[in-house]
Every structure is written in C-alpha cells, then in structure tokens.
Specification:
By secondary structure, this protein is α+β, with helices and mostly antiparallel strands. The protein contains 7 helices and 15 strands. The chain is elongated.
C-alpha cells in the first residue's frame, strides 16, 4: 500500500475515535442534570391543617384516629380551619361532628360541637335515634373499659321461678347487639394522662344510642333483671356488614356515587341489632342447675294445707270442699266430713269441733 494512503487512513481513524469520545462525553454530561432533577423530591410549602382521616358521618365522636394534620397550600387556608400550632388537639377529642365530613376534607370549627354546648347530645344522635342511660358497675360495665364511641352488646340476667318442683332457672341472654356508647357518666370524651395514655375509670352510668323501640326494650329489661354490657371488637362491625350484604339484609342500589355508598354503608354498620340473640341457662354451666323453666303447679290438683303451713300431696279420694268467703279448703272424707254433712242436714251451721266457720260445703265423689 502507498505510504500516503496509509497516513490518510490512520488520520481518518484518529479523527473518528476523537469524535466518538467527544460525543460520548457530551451525552453523559447532558443526562446527569436531568437524572438529578428527577430524583430530587418536591418540597411542599404551606401550613398543616386538620383533616378527616376517614369518612365522618353525622354524630361521630372525634377520637385520635379520626383526624390528623396534613400540609395544605397556604393560599387555600381559611380562617375556619384548625391549623397546627394554633389549635389544641386535646380539646377537640370528644367533640361531635355536626354534619358529614368526607375523608381528606379539612375539619372546620363550625363542623364540631363541644361538650357543654347547647344541643351537644342531640348532635351526637343519628337521625331517628334516641339516648337512654342505664346504671352499671365495675362488673356489669366491663371494668371501666367502655368509652364513648365504642359499640357494645347488652345482656339480661334473671332468675325464673315456675312454681313447681326443683330449683329456679338462672339464665342470661343477649337481648341487643351493636349499641353505640354516647357517654360514660356525664362525659363524652376519654380522659388521658400526661403521656397521652387513656385513663381507665369505673363509671356508674352509660348512655347509649338506640331506636325508640330499642329504648323501650331497654327500659323494660331494667325491671326484669340485671343488665350487663359486653364490649365488641372494632372488626365486628365490618364483618357484620359483609354478612348482611351477602344475606341481602342490606342492599346497595346500583348507580350510587362513592360518597352516597359510603354513607349508606356507615349507617348500616352502626345500626343496632334488635333480633333474637343467644342465651345460656344454668344447666349449660353446671350439671346441678336446671335447663328448663320449672313446671307450674296444676290448678286441678290443689295442695292441701298441713299444720304449720307446710304443704302435702293432694288427696285423691272423696273430699269435702269448704268455702269461707273467697277461701277454699279441701278436707278428705271422714268423720269430719260426715259430721259437717250431718250438721247441714239437720240445719246446723257448723260442724262441732271440726270445720268451724264454714259457710258452705260440698261433697266431691271420689
């Protein structure tokens, strides 16, 4: 090959390699700032305002897990918002939602009713609901672990006497389910210590939310026996709602908006159950207790009064029934009955030394 051509070929090769290196460095330098810009997080500016962490229907009692602070654009902050650093979160706990608030929506000052304000308890009640108070103790009130906003079941314990042989029937039955607690004693908020932990206290009364019919049922149940509360799990409401939807008890119409559907499901999950509940008798707990109600004494076999007020088996043979006003005494046929009949036959008004004071008598054939 000619020396001149070889030099030209080598020169072209050097130029090509140099061009490739220059192009590579240019592309690498241009992509680095773009990657850095993509990785850099977007810094949000503005104050933090109080928003709802979940949907809060009308009458919801505010708890620590219901609301929280979130960054909000400064130009969109209104005077009615609760701003972090200006509002006292501890004073908001126990207040009641006056109108529905959707999840993520800022909570305004006019949306909450504080304890002591006029109409506070009425605002805590759902539409068509009533408030009723029952007395409790440490034993019947779950040891003070029932707080406003919780849901409980109600049990009725009573002793049933049938008047027959054997002991009485001791029984406990669940008469109501899923009742919402509005207040304990006269407090609608939970008390916390310096570390923010809930303080458990024994209470004397619990105020519950109920329909008018359920309120009547509770009022009657208090006169029958002892009422006790059992605390429900937070997961029970959702499982009961899923079961009701599967069984067709709760129907969600087609075409509802997400907000309307959430409102319907919240109302259904908070609804109390007035249906038949479970029960346990003494025989289910101890073999020495009864399982059924004692049989009542048959009116056709009256017991005979024995001396000292004790009772004896009814006489099955011929007997005399003696009437003294409204009182009736049955005497077996014998010398006493014969003397009474003879006395009446002779026009004498009493049987001497036997059934004095008898105003009438009748013979019963055996």
């Amino acid at each position: 090959m000619d020396r001149k051509k070889l030099v030209l070929l080598l020169g072209a090769l050097v130029v090509a390699i140099g061009t490739a290196l220059v192009a590579r460095s240019m592309f690498a330098g241009a992509s680095a700032p773009q990657a850095a810009a993509a990785i850099a997080p977007v810094q949000q500016e503005g104050p933090k305002v109080l928003v709802a962490k979940r949907a809060l229907p009308l009458g919801t009692i505010i708890t620590a897990d219901a609301v929280g602070y979130q960054l909000w654009p400064k130009e969109l902050v209104q005077d009615a918002y609760f701003v972090d650093g200006e509002a006292d979160m501890s004073k908001l706990l126990g207040t009641v939602v006056r109108y529905p608030i959707t999840a993520g929506e800022p909570v305004t000052q006019g949306a909450l009713v504080a304890p002591g304000d006029r109409g506070f308890l009425a605002a805590a009640l759902g539409p068509g609901m009533r408030a009723i108070t029952i007395p409790v103790s440490e034993k019947t009130g779950v040891g003070g672990f029932v707080f406003p906003g919780d849901h409980v079941d109600m049990m009725l314990t009573q002793t049933i006497s049938g008047g027959g042989e054997g002991g009485n029937l001791n029984t406990t039955e669940t008469i109501l389910r899923n009742l919402r607690v509005l207040a304990t004693d006269q407090k609608t908020e939970t008390k916390t210590d310096e570390d923010g932990k809930t303080v458990v206290q024994a209470v004397r009364t619990v105020t519950l939310e109920a329909t008018p019919k359920v309120a009547e049922k509770i009022a009657v149940a208090q006169t029958i026996g002892t009422l006790s509360l059992s605390l429900r799990s937070l997961a029970d409401s959702q499982s009961d709602l899923d079961r009701a939807i599967a069984q067709g008890t709760v129907k969600v119409p087609d075409g509802l908006s997400k907000q309307a559907e959430d409102k319907l499901l919240n109302q259904a999950s908070a609804r109390s159950d007035n249906g038949p509940g479970s029960f346990v008798t003494g025989g289910d707990v101890s073999r020495f207790q009864r399982r059924t109600v004692p049989a009542p004494t048959s009116p056709s076999t009256p017991e005979m009064a024995a001396p000292g007020g004790s009772s004896a088996p009814a006489h099955t043979g011929p007997a005399v029934r003696v009437f003294r006003g409204q009182a009736v005494t049955v005497q077996p046929v014998g010398n006493a009955a014969k003397g009474l009949v003879d006395a009446q036959a002779n026009g004498v008004g009493r049987a001497a030394g036997t059934v004095s004071g008898a105003t009438a008598a009748s013979m019963i054939a055996g």
